[in-house]
């Protein structure tokens, strides 16, 4: 009887171990684990919200508002109407834009352009986690939110 009880315990413990390992494996696969943080530079950052309003690019638009930070301290992108270029500086969580300039195309709907350029002048900080980049004002409030997009 004592031998049968020992065998039962052994099988019971092995069964528990198998169930726990199956749970751990399925849990990590379903959640996918943490999303690695996209690098600030050389990433296509698509504009998702601007001053608290979700960005919805109209069908037939010239392109989606986006920006790309370069390793050399330059930034360029598209506002939804015009292309822009400039410089940026990052020190810790502080981000500042400087010398911003844009083309001067006349567009029927440039609803993102003026607020986006205002955001550049008001930006004092940056928050970067996963695929999300937020431009923040000096009080830490979100001015604009971008998402990293893989290029084809």
UniProtKB/TrEMBL annotation:
<feature type="domain" description="DUF306">
    <location>
        <begin position="38"/>
        <end position="147"/>
    </location>
</feature>
<dbReference type="InterPro" id="IPR053147">
    <property type="entry name" value="Hsp_HslJ-like"/>
</dbReference>
<dbReference type="InterPro" id="IPR005184">
    <property type="entry name" value="DUF306_Meta_HslJ"/>
</dbReference>
<keyword id="KW-0732">Signal</keyword>
<feature type="signal peptide">
    <location>
        <begin position="1"/>
        <end position="24"/>
    </location>
</feature>
<dbReference type="Pfam" id="PF03724">
    <property type="entry name" value="META"/>
</dbReference>
<protein>
    <submittedName>
        <fullName>META domain-containing protein</fullName>
    </submittedName>
</protein>
<dbReference type="InterPro" id="IPR038670">
    <property type="entry name" value="HslJ-like_sf"/>
</dbReference>
